[in-house]
Amino acid sequence: MMRTPHGDIPTPVFAPVGTQATVKTLTPDELVTIGATLILANTYHLYLRPGADTIARLGDLHGFMGWPGPILTDSGGFQVFSLEGLRRVSEEGVVFRSHIDGSEHFFSPEKAVEIQEKLGADIIMVLDECPDPMDYDYNKSALERTHRWAERCLRAHTRADQALFGIVQGGVFPDLRGKSAEFLTSLGFPGYGIGGLSVGEPKDKTWEMLDVTVPLLPTHAPRYLMGVGSPEDLFEGVERGVDLFDSVLPTRLARNGGVFTSRGRINLRKAKFADDPAPIEEGCDCYTCRRFSRAYLRHLLKAGEILGLRLNTIHNLHFLVELMGRIRAAITEGSFAALKTDFLSRYVPAANDEDQRIKHLARRRGKPKRKGNA
Amino acid sequence: MMRTPHGDIPTPVFAPVGTQATVKTLTPDELVTIGATLILANTYHLYLRPGADTIARLGDLHGFMGWPGPILTDSGGFQVFSLEGLRRVSEEGVVFRSHIDGSEHFFSPEKAVEIQEKLGADIIMVLDECPDPMDYDYNKSALERTHRWAERCLRAHTRADQALFGIVQGGVFPDLRGKSAEFLTSLGFPGYGIGGLSVGEPKDKTWEMLDVTVPLLPTHAPRYLMGVGSPEDLFEGVERGVDLFDSVLPTRLARNGGVFTSRGRINLRKAKFADDPAPIEEGCDCYTCRRFSRAYLRHLLKAGEILGLRLNTIHNLHFLVELMGRIRAAITEGSFAALKTDFLSRYVPAANDEDQRIKHLARRRGKPKRKGNA
Questions:
Q1: Nearest partner of B1 among B38, B34, B30, B32, judged by Cα
Q2: How large is the ipTM?
Q3: d(CA B279, CA B283)
Q4: What is the pTM of this model?
Q5: A120 CA to chain B: closest CA distance, Å?
């Protein structure tokens, strides 16, 4: 359980991503119905558009987007460092160009905190550098700077009603991860992000890094595995002590026709669903499954209709939120291992190539694109 | 009041358009909340995708799209005759190519009825030819064929639970309109569409044609002015005895940022709304106005977020449905003229050029495009 000024968050929790102050396609009321208790928003995107001052004037993020519950803002580090060829990093901070209009901007640790204080989320994140996870030298040098930036964020932070989380980095290297976890813990953050994972590295490395990192973090502070959100990965993360997950996977997948079922992902665009009167999942009590057939959902996708994106998004978020509820109940009852075995005995993870494609999509979590909508 | 197997429809009524078996961006439940009592769907689009047989197997249109109330299907004539260069008309029917894949298809009056019987709407329409409204010779010759097609539709029609409406044509020519109204009335349809208007002709011609046509139609049968739906036009139509309107204007406008207010249309994309904390319309009790500011709606539009399209659509449909409710109440109380004067004293119709641009968009009601979504 995490307590915030905008409500309690039972943990472990999966947080839907609302990059631009909207979980794509959904209203805040639909998120409440789904059972979401925490959502993410993105500092980089909101700083550029509509601007932090505008949001502050309109009742901070909660008032602006009409979401009364807890919010977490990412610092924008991940997005800025995704702007290849568009950014220049120095000890002071990072200069980058807007993906919207090419204008030049500067984020320092202090600026990232200042913006997030204006946005007013309940949980905010330090500015970090997110290097290629496989490059030891880059990770080593970036790590030291990221640690100095973490100290500067702490000093700049003034709002006692916002919890500022540190972010452990260090790529796929146990010594760097250990060093990072120990250093950040010494600073005494109220929570810790584990960043720089799920960005293309082999899956066994992801879990190895968690095995190295989590035991070094204080037990009383929530651990947040950034950018991870497939059903099978939630089990692996929870088993290793993760409290908080976020990912664009369920929402992005939904908009591409991919939906979760207890037996694995299916893609509703496939011809075999053209006359299928069944819901996505028999027995699922989400709005989509209670009301619509796979055949209708497929039609909406093929016809390019927005309602299809909405209905798939509702189902996928409901699936993960409901799964997390079952995981929490199982932990309480001491039956987590049984639930994991049972779930994974039926759930077929996507094939490796499919998984890599989706991982690639997931990597782009809020990653700015040159054209169109991020 | 119109009675249908799926419910009563208080008249006059504005019917939202759901071309592809979805009123764009909305769920059936949202349409119920808005107060919609009748929606349109389109035979041309649904015949091509997903196909009438598929829809028939999945519980006809009502079951397929999860809308329990009355539905009207357009015959597809308007769409087929919008396919310039792609169609070939003869006495027998019309050959056309799909805008989706270029495949060749044939609609006859009998086929149009057969498809609509499979789709299962409560009100279905005869197949008609929709010529350039200003071309006398074309209208004259097309009219005779359209009348023969109307007779063939009547003969082909087998389902007693569906009301088959005739469609008056004749361009902007009083003699042709009169001839058409008289001929169709002699066939004894349960309702009459007035087609071929609001397709680019001057507005005074539209009303002149209504003045000529409506008195020739039987008083007991509903009159349906096809493709008209701006607030000011609803008043003009109702005053002339129209019972039923449909138009993509409110939904299409919404997706372009245009929303109705009691003082006229505004476009939420404008910079002046960037910090505006007010709802679209003070006192409006639609979901959008109860929950969100113009500033947030503008942000969603500028950021390309689907939620903005949804929220604007909800407001615009609510605006027209609520206005129609006030018009019905005023008719009952004998105060229609006062309501019209009062409404139009505050409501500034869009400037002529803007209006022409939107009319042009409205003309494309369900008009197939070569690429993307219609």
A1: B38
A2: 0.95
A3: 9
A4: 0.95
A5: 16
